């Protein structure tokens, strides 16, 4: 009996071991086979372009970051867009001509006579992450004492405040911080100023032959990095404390988990990835505009987390890619197919209605998400040989969620 | 003083609005003893517990644990000082495995940081491996030799109670607070459990404070008993003294029963 169970575990382990490198390999080669794929009959039109994939990945990164807050720690954050904004504007401040009063260049590939601060995007990404983390801590310290609904309302408030601040921040006592409604543009491109001397690597993605392709490959690496950190954090002492807080805050405190510090860390680390993604995306589209940071982005990101499965990294990644795909490419493709068929219906007009329906259907039929969080059981059982606990689980304890765990 | 007290509570008072839940209670726990706190429903036993563990902040009075004033400390700091507890209505992390529950209990005894966890440095890896070994030991010690990977919520009731104790032991306490640990157990389980409490005290050198309804258990296991009624202490002493105390009999059985 236990032999079969172990064999099953092995197979399960094998499946995962095979799946991850396969997806990574597909991710790496995608931009090179994109042309071929888009020529395929029927499905070809639905293949996202490499440029669309960059946007999809940026939003998925944010969703994975949000998952640390909502999925692991159970803190409902309705203002995550604030972190995206902070990241994007950090890129604007440190890598554009915005601060024309100064001229400062550090490792950047732009011409040396350009005014403004031009720091290489690699440093900007780290800086954006850290600054967003700080923003997360500043927002978190006064608000994380609240529980449940109250926290959601306050984060909602912050999510509304930040876009208003950037929209009106063109004159802080005469100082132009955010350039108001015009936003900051252009923002410097990513590039390899040092590596480019050996050839192959472009000094500047913007001016290279394969702008999208390079942006995509780096975005893909950033996403993998985010997922990697997310997995490691989940399996750490801190990750356990987050899940304990999600399960029962009072018991967690009584077991020695410092609530404020642990929650603030989840907020700060969740914010970090939002900031990095925001800065990268701002560089990709070469601008940060206040109109990008509205409440519906926070909801959109939350939908990704819910669709994929709260707390499940792979679920959130898949959920994020699906929703971002529909939003940035899928719905319009479907729309044009419908138009071709002679029907007058444009799904892009109803996009949030469609996401709403998806969420309602998910809640009804698969509330734990596409790929539910599997409390990592197997690795914990190493060396413990045991017969199944119940032969038949027929009572209410076994839900759909449990079944899909197996 | 001849007796070395691990806990010294003086004039502890807690008011919820007009209700006095703890009424100027003085209370000491000698190191290494098993002490019981009894009293009818609503006597303020759990409120007293919650003040010891920092869940409630006392209105006035002082709680000195092992030489440190703890009345203004948050729960996690008190746990770090060495008070571990269980809950009257089981509060396990039900989606986590039994092993993980104990590991959460060990949170304040581990030091793995964020960068270390992401990089999985040798130090963090070793610490985690050792923590797991120790957690397994504690589970086995607490009467859960198997099913360490089972989700806590799926364990049967008695095992959940045992897991709560294992988790509390994970915090490496000097004082173990058990809030009605035998509630819902049958007589055999109860007897096993009381033997276990005594064994924990002897082998791990702990001090135990027990809340119980069941007089038989209290009389059997504890060296000293304190009786609360309406938030106030009405009696204190050995089992024999308590059994003979008129006010206690009155509190439990009503006026006239003592006569």
How confident is the prediction overall: mean pLDDT of chain B? 89
Mean of all residue-level pLDDT scores of chain A: 85
Count of extended strands of chain A: 2
Shape of chain A: globular
Tell me about the largest β-sheet of chain A: 2 strands, parallel
Question: What does the oligomeric state look like here?
Answer: heterodimer
Q: What's the Cα radius of gyration of chain B?
A: 19 Å
Helix run count of chain A: 13
Cα shape of chain B: globular
Low-confidence stretches of chain B: none
- Strand arrangement within the widest β-sheet of chain A reads 1-2
Per DSSP, what share of the residues of chain A sits in E-state strands of 2 or more residues?
A: under 5%
Structural class of chain B: alpha/beta
Q: How many whole angstroms does the radius of gyration of chain A measure?
A: 23 Å
Q: Report the major sheet of chain B.
A: 6 strands, mixed
The residue ranges of chain A in which pLDDT falls below 50 over 5 or more consecutive positions are 376-406
The N- to C-terminal Cα distance of chain B equals: 38 Å
Number of strands of chain B: 10
**Elements of chain A, N to C (H/E):** HHHEEHHHHHHHHHH
Look at the helices and sheets of chain A and give the structural class: mainly alpha
Report the span from N to C terminus of chain A.
Answer: 16 Å
């Amino acid at each position: 009996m236990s032999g079969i169970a172990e064999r099953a575990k092995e197979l399960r382990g094998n499946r995962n071991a095979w799946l991850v490198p396969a997806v990574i390999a597909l991710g790496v080669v995608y931009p090179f086979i994109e042309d071929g794929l888009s020529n395929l009959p029927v499905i070809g039109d639905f293949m996202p372009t490499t440029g669309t994939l960059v946007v999809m990945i940026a939003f998925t990164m944010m969703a994975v970051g949000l998952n640390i807050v909502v999925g692991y720690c159970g803190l409902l954050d309705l203002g995550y867009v604030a972190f995206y904004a902070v990241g994007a504007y950090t890129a604007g401040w440190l890598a554009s001509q915005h601060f024309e009063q100064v001229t400062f260049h550090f490792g950047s590939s732009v011409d040396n006579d350009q005014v403004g601060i031009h720091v290489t995007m690699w440093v900007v990404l780290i800086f954006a992450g850290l600054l967003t983390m700080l923003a997360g801590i500043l927002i978190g310290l006064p608000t994380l004492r609240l529980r449940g609904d109250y926290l959601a309302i306050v984060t909602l408030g912050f999510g509304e405040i930040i876009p208003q601040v950037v929209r009106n921040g063109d004159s802080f006592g005469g100082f132009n911080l955010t350039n108001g409604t015009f936003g900051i543009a252009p923002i410097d491109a990513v590039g390899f100023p040092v590596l480019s001397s050996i050839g192959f690597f472009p000094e500047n993605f913007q001016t290279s032959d394969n702008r999208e392709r390079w942006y995509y490959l780096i975005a893909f690496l950033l996403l993998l990095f985010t997922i990697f950190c997310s997995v490691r954090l989940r399996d750490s002492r801190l990750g356990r404390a987050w899940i304990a807080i999600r399960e029962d805050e009072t018991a967690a405190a009584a077991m020695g988990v410092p609530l404020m510090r642990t929650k603030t860390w989840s907020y700060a680390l969740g914010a970090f990835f939002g900031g990095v993604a925001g800065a990268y995306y701002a560089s990709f589209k070469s601008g940060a505009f206040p109109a990008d940071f509205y409440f519906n982005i926070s909801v959109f990101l939350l939908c990704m987390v819910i669709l994929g499965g709260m707390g499940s990294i792979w679920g959130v990644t898949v959920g994020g890619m699906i929703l971002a795909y529909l939003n940035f490419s899928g719905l319009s493709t479907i729309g044009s197919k419908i138009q071709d068929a002679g029907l007058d219906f444009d799904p892009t007009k109803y996009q949030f209605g469609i996401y709403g329906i998806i969420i309602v259907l998910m809640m009804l039929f698969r509330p734990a998400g596409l790929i539910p969080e599997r409390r990592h059981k197997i690795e914990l059982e190493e060396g413990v040989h045991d017969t199944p606990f119940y032969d038949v689980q027929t009572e209410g304890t076994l839900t759909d969620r449990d079944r899909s765990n197996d | 003083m001849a007796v070395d007290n691990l806990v010294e509570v003086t004039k502890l008072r807690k008011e919820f609005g007009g209700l006095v839940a703890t009424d100027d209670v003085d209370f000491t726990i000698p190191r290494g003893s098993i002490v019981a706190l009894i009293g009818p429903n609503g006597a303020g036993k759990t409120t007293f517990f919650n003040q010891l563990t920092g869940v409630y902040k006392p209105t006035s009075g002082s709680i000195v644990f092992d030489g440190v004033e703890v009345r203004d400390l948050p729960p996690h700091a008190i746990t770090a000082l060495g008070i571990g507890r269980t809950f009257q209505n089981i509060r396990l992390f039900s989606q986590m495995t039994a092993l993980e529950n104990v590991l959460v209990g060990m949170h304040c005894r581990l030091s793995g940081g964020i960068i270390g966890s992401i990089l999985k440095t040798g130090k963090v890896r070793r610490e985690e491996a050792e923590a797991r070994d120790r957690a397994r030991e504690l589970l086995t010690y607490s009467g859960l030799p198997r099913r360490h990977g089972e989700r806590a919520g799926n364990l049967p009731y008695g095992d959940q109670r045992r897991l709560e104790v294992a988790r509390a032991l994970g915090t490496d306490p000097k004082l173990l607070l058990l809030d009605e640990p035998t509630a819902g157990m049958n007589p055999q389980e109860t007897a096993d459990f009381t033997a276990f409490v005594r064994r924990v005290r002897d082998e791990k050198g702990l001090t135990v404070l027990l809340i119980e309804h069941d007089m038989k258990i209290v009389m059997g296991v504890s060296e000293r008993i304190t009786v609360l009624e309406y938030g106030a202490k009405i009696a204190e002493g050995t089992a024999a003294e308590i059994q003979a105390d008129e006010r206690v009999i009155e509190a439990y059985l009503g006026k006239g029963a003592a006569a």
